[in-house]
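## tool: complex_structure
## caller: assistant
## args:
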Amino acid sequence: MSQPLLEVADLRVHFPLKKRSVFSAPQTVRAVDGVSFSVRHGSTFGIVGESGSGKTTTALAVMRLLDITAGKVRLAGEAFSEFQGEQLRSARHRVQMIFQDPYSSLNPRMRAGAIVREPMQRMNIGTESERADRVRGLFGQVGLRPDQAQLFPHQFSGGQRQRIGIARALATKPELVVCDEPVSALDVAIQAQILNLLGALQREYGLTYLLISHDLGVVQYLCDEIAVMYLGRIVEYSTREALFEDPLHPYTWALLSAVPRMGRRRRGAPTEGASRMRLEGDPPSPINPPPGCRFSARCPFAESRCHAEEPALREIRTGQRVACHLVRDDGTAPHRPPLL
Amino acid sequence: MAALLEIENLKVEFDTWDGRVRVLDGVSLAVNAGETLGIVGESGCGKSMTALAIMGLVPKPAGHVTGGSVRFDGEDLLKAAESRLREVRGHRIAMIFQEPMTSLNPVFTIGDQIAETARLHLGLTAAQARSRTIEMLKAVHIPEAERRIDEYPHQFSGGMRQRVMIAMALVCEPQVLIADEPTTALDVTVQAQIFDLLQELRDTRGTAIVLITHDMGAIAEMADRVVVMYAGRKAEEGPVEAILGQPAHPYTRGLLACRPQLQLGKGAVRKALQEIPGVVPPLHLLGKGCAFAERCPHVTARCRDERPPETGAGTGHLASCWLLDTTSDAPKGRQAA
Amino acid sequence: MAETEARGPWREAWSVFKRNYAALVGLGILALVLTTAIAGPWIYPVDPFDIVGAPKTPPGTDADAVLGTDYLGRDMLAGLVRGGRPTLMVGFFAAMIATVIGITMGALGGYYGGKVDALLGRITEFFQVLPALLFAMVLVMLFTPSLVTVTFAIGFVAWTSMARLTRAEFLRIKQLEYVRAARAIGSSNGRIIWGVILPNALPPIIVAATLATGTAILFEAGLSFLGLSDPNMMSWGMMIGSNRNYLREMWWAVTFPGVCIFLTVLAISLVGDGLNDAFNPRLRTR
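## result:
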């Protein structure tokens, strides 16, 4: 594995904000502010964070569905972020997306089969009969009956609609599939069906996923490597094993301890209280973020240095990087509460 | 001891184009003071409708309560007059909703909205209502309550808005607080804050909480007792330890196994998720047997033909399933999960 | 789901529409009016400009003119039969012009946003604040009054509400994920505007266009009443306009065409309401 499939280098996406009045200074939303990561062939890379962290913006920028302010996106070594016009249009089949909301992601006026066939038509892939064959094949692969191709989206359940969305994303045989919260809009009992399907498709066809999620359980289940984002920055970047075994960033601790879990009861044993780490308030806005570490305003352990100086992402051990002043070079984090 | 809120054999029907559909079919449950009852299930299982029926807010004219009783403090609310219901609603039983943005009126300050409830139900003067409002905002840990009372809903973040909703619900010191997916629209760190707050209110004020959710994790953290609902019927009920530890109903076992659970520490393993096949059947197509029969991995002929009764003994752990081992005290699945 | 029959959104809307009693009545009246307007001249081949009897003959007194004659002795029934066609044509084509202009302005503004939207928005506002009837009168008087100029004049003053509606729909739909999905497969802006968003924005636009037809007919009647209509075409509005001075002595000369206009516009409104219900998913699920 020499070259990663996807390399993102110092990606920045800034949006100008409408001025409140003619006299006020222009403001910028720094939705993504210097994000770098790379995704290996056939692996799943997860970006996890809360609302406003910039995870979805990152995904859309990688897809070239948003204008990139600065930085590079390389796809199999090619400068995908530099592609323009026809070159970009014809390269779009290489990256496809599975959307969050199965109810708004399918055009209600098109039949299911046409929805899956459309990407191939737009990009002139195959002949008419080859496309029809592929649509039939895809329906089978995602667990739908081929005769359902003639139905309209509203005739399907949420889980089935998400299967149509997956079939559409796979129609052009993309190298990279971006999954934006693929199960968060689905009923709990349906989520397992879709997660298992994503896993099975990856094993069978060697797909590469970029998974965007706020759900740490889903991320742990599917991902090989994970980036934790906060306010447009990656605060921790780690393999799955390391992240859940030995999380380093205080924000990761807070996220992990906030997830409700089976087998941990709030009432009863008083020692459990010590393992909980609570954050005050809400994430600040990505408009004019605070100087220094972006998490410093909510970090219970922040020191004066944290408010002044932005920590860089540095490698603590193989496969684990963190952006925090408080983590020592040997990987010890003196403040970490017991998380189990 | 009579429970504070007791629902018995509640039946609610809805007129739809597919005919009349029973959205709640013989649901019984009880909540005691100072207790958190979790109601868990997929969308369309009737958990929100149960809450609306308690509040006397079943949508008219399509919805009809066709049977059963909702006893609050000994009084049957289904037989109560609308004026009496208005008195109970908001005052004795309060409710908070999933979407804190749309639950607040954007053209009034949050202070006005909370104070209105206080004036309406408690007969306070404007000044008294205002100080009571500030007190409530402080109780839900909104910083700078004296200043923020005069702000509008859009000036609050999602988590803060949910706190405002809770403050509004608590202003009359209700005995029951119904929380319908209160954190679904919120980030996980904010959800933890809201759960802490609800827990604190229950412990300090003795408010009974009915927590409606689809998340077994939230149930595990918050609930004392759990009701699992499926297709308008109660599948299983019991103390939270029993439901999580020895789930008896195949649907409950499915719900517990179908979501990836976060595992911390060494030796986390990726277990394949168990799927519950298919989807919830449309209510008008339910057969005469068990509602879960079509999706159940252990289904028998009897399950399709006859509706299973609720069985269980002593411990308050009940389940509606033909496959239970009825010889032991607690219901227990015959098949290993 | 056991369902395998493909039921498209349009067919589903029709199944709702046909349960609406009032809308079906409207559709029936409209069909009657249309049939008369198209086939009437063959069934009742009397020239409405021919003088067939004594002026001001009341209805029911002359077998040659069952509904009486107007102030010149022209047959009222012939006027009603012939007058439907220009009235409906003006209404229909004016509404179509308004819809085409409105959709174009609204779609471009809503989709591109920013400066395009600001510019088109200003133009829309400009037309919106013009006194519509006065502006239409000026347009008709600038050119000679004819069916075409009247149609264009009405179309030019009636498109603003359509533009605002289309823009609002585009703003809503362009945020939906299927539009993003279309972009992700490299669809062009034109394809997304006309092929993806517009078909989904159509239902409320169709309702508005239907209602706009009614409005345009009323407009035409107003212009005709003021004498601004094609002098070579008998229309209902023109009948009212030319007989208005004799209103007190001959009630029938204005009542009959007035009732025709009223029924036609009412029928169109009922159909429009029915379409609105049929396309409105909230009512559909009850």
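## assistant note: Residues 327 and 334 of chain A are 7 Å apart (CA to CA). The interface with chain C takes residues 60, 63, 65, 88-90, 92-93, 95-97, 99-101, 104-109, 111, 118-119, 122-123, 147-148, 150-152, 154-157, 160, 165, 168, 172 of chain A (CB under 8 Å). Handing back to user.
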